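Hello again,

I reread your note about wanting to compare the complex against the isolated chains. To keep things tidy I'm splitting this into two emails, and this first one only covers the full assembly. Below are the input lines as submitted, including protein chains and any nucleic acid or small-molecule components. They are followed by the predicted structure of everything together. The single-chain runs will come separately.
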Amino acid sequence: MRSTLIRFTMRSKTLFLALLSGIATAAVPAESVKIWISSQQDKIYYDNMVRLYQQEVDSDFEAEVQAFGFREMPDKLAIAFKTQTNTPDIIQLDEVFFGMYLQDEAPFVDLTERVIAAGLMEDIMPQRLELFSQKGRVLGLPQSMSAMLIYYRRDLFEQYGLSPSEFKTWDDLVDIGEELVAQNQSFLAMDPSYFEILLRQRGSDLFSETGDLLPDFDLAVDTLEFLGELAQKRVGLMPDRSSIFDPVFFGGDVANNEIVAIMGADWYGLDMIQQFSSDLEGEWGMMPLPAWTDDQGNPNSVRTSTFAGQGLVIYKESQSIDASWEFIKFVLTNKEANAQRFLQGNSFPAYKPSFEDIRLLQPQPFFGYDSMGQLLVDLAPEVPRVIMNPRRPMAVFMIREGILSSIMYGEGDARVALERFKEQLDGSGEPPEQN
Amino acid sequence: MLRYSGFFRINLGRLFLATPFFLFLLVFWATPLGEGLLLSLESDTLWGEPSFVGFKHYKELLQDSRYWHSVANTSVFALCTITFSIGLALLFAHGIRLSLKGLQGPLAFALVVPGLCPPTVLALLFLLVFHGKEGLLNRWLMEPLGFETVNWLSDPNFIMPAIVIQAVWRWTGFMTFFLLCALNARPRDVLDAAAIDGVNIWQRFYKITLPLISPTITFCLIYLLVDCFAQFAGSYVLFGGSGGANDAGLLLVTYAYQKAFVGGGFGSGAAVSLSILPWLAGMLILVALVPRYLWKGARM
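Full-complex prediction:
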C-alpha cells in the first residue's frame, strides 16, 4: 500500500514538473541582448536602433538597453567582470577605459574574422579601428571619428573683428589671443585633456608602440610649457572646475562671454555644446586646429587631433555573441543608423561610406550654417592614431586631474612635473606587458 | 546554567543571546575583511583567474610615492579636521550653554543638521560654495573682505583647505551636540566648590571641565578620525575620483579607488585599503592615550 502511494506520488510529481517545464518554456521570450550604454543621450539613440533593427533585419530581436553615467559605467563594468555577475552582452565603452582591460587577455570577443568578412577593414577609418584592437585583433568597433576642432563664438569674433582664416598656426592664435587679453578678454577655454591632444597633433603620444611612457619627452615638455604659457598669459582660461566637460562651465565661463573658443571633438560639439549652450544657437562656428610650425615658422603638422570616443564591444562570455555582432554591425554600417547618430547629437561616424550621406554634410543652423560634416570629412585623413596601452587610463587620469592643472596655475616646472609623472606611473607597480 | 567552572566559565544563555551579534560580525565584517585580504594577495587580473602573488602589492606600495603622498595627505586632513572641529565644537557648546534656555534646543538641532546630511549631497552643495568666481565662499567672504578670489577646487594650494572646510562644516555641529551633553552632565557641586575655593575660569576649564568631559572628547576624536580615514564620497564628488591638482587632495581611499577602478588593479586597490588599518589603529591608540596622559589622575 505504502509503495503504491509512493509510486503514485512520484508519478504525479514528474507529471507536474513536466507540465511546469512546458509552461515555463512556452512563457520564456527570446533571449534578450543586454546593452550597457554610458549616457542617457545615447540610450535614446540605442532604443531607436533596436526598433530600427527589428523593423529592417530581425523582428524577433530583443534587447534591453541600460544607461549609466559616463563615470559610473566603467566602475560597474569592472565589478561585473571581476565578479562574473550580471554581465552585459554589448558594451559601449570609451576608448580611455577600454585600455584598462588590456593588461591580460581582454574580456571581449575577437571580432577580426567577422570584421574582415563584413568588409569593415576598408570601410572604417583605420586609425579608429586600430583604437579598439589588441595585438592586431579587432575587439571593438568605433562609433565616432572623434576629430578635434575649434568651436568659436561667431558673435565675439565679429565683436573683436576676427576671422577663422587668421588662425593658421598656434603662433597666430597666441598673438591674437594676447591682443584680446589687452582688451581683458581670454581666447581659449583650457582643459587638461589638451596636453594629450596637442601631443598627438604634433605626431607623438603618451605611449610608444613598445610601451614607453612619453617617448618624445622633450616634445612633451614643450607642449606642456606651451599650455602653461597660454594659461599664464591668460590667452587660455582655466574653467573654475578645470574642465570644459562640466555643465557649470557652460553656465559660467561660456554664458558670461569669458572665452571666445573651445577645442573639442565632434562629439563635444554635437552633444555638449548643443545641449548645454542651447541659448547660443547660431552663434557658434567651427574651424580646424591651428598648425604647429618648424624653426622657420612653416606649418608642419596636421590640422586636427583626436581624443576619447566610444566603441562597441561584445563580452566574451556572452550567450548571444552572434546576435550581438549582427546588431553592432547594423548600427555601425546602416545608413540610417549612422545618419541618426549624427543628427541626434551623438557623434560623427568613422564609417567611411557614410561620409557621402548628404544628411551628414548639410549646413547646421546651430553652428551658423557651417557644415560640421564637410569639415570633418576633409580632416578625416589627418586624424592621428592613438597608441593604446594598459597603463593609458591611469596616465590620462593623472595628467588630467593632477599634473596639468598645477602647471596651469603656475605651480612648478613642466619638465619636473613630467619627470615626476613618469616616475609615479612607472613606480606605482610593475608595468604590464605591452600588448 | 553554568556549564564549566573556573576561568573559562561560560554562561550558555548569555552566549545564545550574543550569537546574533557574532553572526553579524562574521558575515558583515570578518568575511569581507578576509575576502579583501585574499584579494590583496592576488594578481591585478580584471577578468579571468587571478594568480597568487603574496605580498607583492604591499611591497610595491612601499616604493610608491603617490601612496606615501596619500598617507601624508590623509594624516594632515585628519589632524586639521579634528583640531578645528573639536575646537569649534567646544566653543559652540559653551556658547549654547550661555544662550537663552529657549534657544538652546533649536540651536543644537540646527548644528546637528549638516552631520545628518549624506556626504554626497553635502559635496554637491559645496561645489557651489567652492565654485570659482561664482562660488559662495568667494562672493560672500573673499571679495567683501578685499581678498583675491580663490579657485578652491583647482588651485593646489587651496585644495586641502577646501576639503578640511567641508569636513569641519559637516561635523562641528554634531560634535557640539555631544560636547553640550557632556558639559551639561558635569557635577555642579565640583564646579561650585572650585569657584568658592577661588579657582579661576581657565583653571576650572583645564583642570576640571576637560577631565570631566574627556571620555566624550575621546569618543569625538575616534569618530572623526575614522571618518577622515574613510573619507571618499565628499572628495569623489569634488574631484571626480582624483586627488585634485598636484594630488593635493589625494586621500588613501581615493587612491585605493584609483588603483582599482582607473588602473584596473583590484588586488593593488585592496592592498591600499587594508594598509589603512595599521595607520588608523596607530592613530586610534594615540588618540585614546593622549587624554589619559594629559589628565592623569584628574579623572572623576
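For quick reference: Chain B has one domain: 58-294.

B.
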